[in-house]
Design a protein that fits this description.
82% of the residues lie in helices and 0% in strands. It has 4 helices and no strands. α2 runs antiparallel to α3 and α2 packs parallel to α4. The relative contact order is 0.06.
């Protein structure tokens, strides 16, 4: 092996040490960047899930209101009576469902509500 002066070896060692320090600094910076990217992705995913949950809840609320307007939240006999008299008229279905709901909230029995829808309410 040829003779290498100590100054050259020390210079080479210093350069290698500087390169190693620079590599460590770069690795640390890349690690911090990766952590920041992961945090950003996690926040984006959570926001997306929240938005999807909100959209789903809104769609379910719209569907419940649609079902309610058709009278689907009422007892079967009342629903059948409303269907019989309103047919496919959404406005009349909604009005009869609202009427039936109001009467039920006042404690009027189901049979009486059906009778009022069928024969007309004499108190109106």
């Amino acid at each position: 092996m040829p003779f290498v002066p100590a100054a050259v070896l020390q210079s080479l060692l210093a350069a290698t040490t500087q390169q190693a320090d620079a590599t460590q600094a770069l690795a640390a910076a890349l690690s911090r960047q990766a952590e920041a990217d992961l945090a950003r992705v996690t926040l984006d995913r959570e926001r997306l899930q929240w938005e999807q949950g909100r959209e789903k809840a809104a769609a379910e609320a719209v569907e419940r209101e649609h079902e309610r307007s058709r009278g689907e939240d009422l007892p079967d006999l009342v629903q059948q009576t409303i269907s019989k008299f309103a047919g496919e008229d959404p406005m009349l279905r909604s009005q009869l469902a609202s009427y039936a709901r109001t009467r039920a909230a006042r404690g009027i029995p189901e049979q009486q509500i059906v009778k009022e829808i069928t024969m007309g309410d004499p108190t109106r």
